[in-house]
Amino acid sequence: MKRIxxxxxxxxxCGGVRYHASAMLDTSHVCHCRMCQKAAGNYFAALVGxxxxxxxxxxxxxxxxxxxxxxxxxxxxxxxxxxxYDYRDAAHLSVTTGSLDEPxxxxxxxxxxxxxxxxxxxxxPALQADGSTEELMTEEAAAIRASNxxxxxxxTDSWPSGAGKKPGTSR
Length: 171
Known about the structure:
By secondary structure, the chain is mainly beta. The chain has a single domain (3-126), classed as glutathione-dependent formaldehyde- activating enzyme (gfa), CATH 3.90.1590.10. Helix content is 12%, strand content 30%.
């Protein structure tokens, strides 16, 4: 696996836990194993490696769960966002791609755990796209937008945001 000197940051949905990476690995992948499905609460977990010496927790500390003797998974104790997978004998840990501020920068290159891959996963790209939430659920989307408590996809000096700012708004 190749170390890439590239800056990346991310964190949980509520903003209570944030991290910064000064380097990443070229290991972006999805894992279909049943343990990853349950940990992510989804069809698969999307992960990308970060060398241990390149990762800094910049706000808060993740809670952990030992999903097996050699593996610890980190998550936000407040909002539940899965943040990392850590195989203790590895020189790196893997952050969840969705917790990155710019997940599109790390497209998956491989897939693992295919023994538990759901048999219909290949049909997803062909599913009918009915339109955006903004178009289909105008009132609901506006209500969610007006009361959004999700941390923005960038670092903030403090969170929730300061006086006069609504949570979820930019700087």
